[in-house]
Design the sequence.
């Protein structure tokens, strides 16, 4: 039975996607579907995804459109429409989930609330040590001390965000502070994102449009943002960071000025 739809934003990098999917094989909650929101990968990559889909225990739907530049928000909207469950979890194709990632989101889901987790940023050294087999056997969780050491003496950072616990006192303390949505790690009821007409497709570069904009418009409707720090954990695989373009920041400034929850540039075009 499918109780949640996990939407993975993806472009080209099959090696990373294989590790992300291996992470979902380890989930203690198995009642989910995977939707790969593919922002225009080449046909040879598409063919490989079709082969990979048959190797996994969970249903995988591949949603694709042609490569016409950065159109992540547009393909995410297509994935929302294609989803078959009333609850959506968003993750990027370079983020390996903790084994209790799905349950962390689903078990804490409540009405009128969007949940946001955090991620560890792995160094290039640790990223290169990983493989789908290592991820599947839980190397990152069983050897988290190696991640911590790399955070102290290497290039991994935000390693403290990889500490998973079920201790209610600790969780209450670390989640009392309000935190913003992280586009690679958040979840909400499908009906809530439909109320704001999904992602604004005018953002045609990385940053802001996948998280800050969404949060601002959800909060206009009174949707609460709740932190899942140390509950919904993921491990971000190393890659070159993308710049925050001024065009995105200018557009977001206009969105805040207009203060409209429902974008005219989303799933439904009016």
Sequence:
């Amino acid at each position: 039975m499918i109780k949640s739809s996990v939407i993975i934003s993806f472009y080209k990098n099959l090696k990373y996607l294989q590790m992300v999917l291996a992470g979902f094989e380890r989930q203690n909650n198995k009642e989910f579907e995977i939707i790969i929101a593919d922002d225009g990968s080449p046909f040879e990559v598409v063919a490989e995804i079709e082969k990979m889909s048959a190797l996994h225990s969970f249903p995988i739907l591949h949603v694709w459109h042609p490569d016409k530049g950065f159109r992540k928000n547009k393909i995410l909207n297509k994935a929302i429409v294609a989803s078959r469950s009333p609850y959506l979890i968003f993750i990027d194709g370079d983020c390996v989930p903790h084994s209790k990632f799905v349950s962390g989101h689903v078990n804490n889901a409540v009405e009128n609330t969007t949940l946001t987790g955090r991620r560890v940023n792995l160094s290039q050294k640790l990223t290169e040590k990983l493989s789908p087999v290592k991820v599947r056997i839980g190397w990152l969780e069983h050897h988290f001390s190696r991640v911590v050491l790399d955070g102290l003496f290497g290039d991994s950072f935000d390693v403290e965000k990889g500490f998973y616990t079920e201790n209610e006192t600790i969780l209450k303390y670390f989640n009392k502070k309000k935190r913003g949505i992280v586009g690679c790690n958040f979840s909400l009821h499908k009906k809530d994102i439909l109320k704001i007409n999904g992602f604004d497709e005018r953002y045609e570069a990385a940053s802001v449009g996948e998280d800050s904009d969404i949060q601002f418009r959800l909060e206009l409707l009174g949707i609460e943002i709740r932190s899942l720090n140390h509950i919904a954990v993921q491990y971000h695989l190393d890659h070159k960071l993308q710049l925050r373009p001024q065009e995105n920041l200018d557009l977001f400034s206009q969105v805040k000025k207009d203060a409209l929850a429902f974008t005219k540039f989303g799933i439904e075009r009016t």
In short: The mean pLDDT is 95. The two ends are 35 Å apart (CA to CA). The chain has one domain: 4-258.
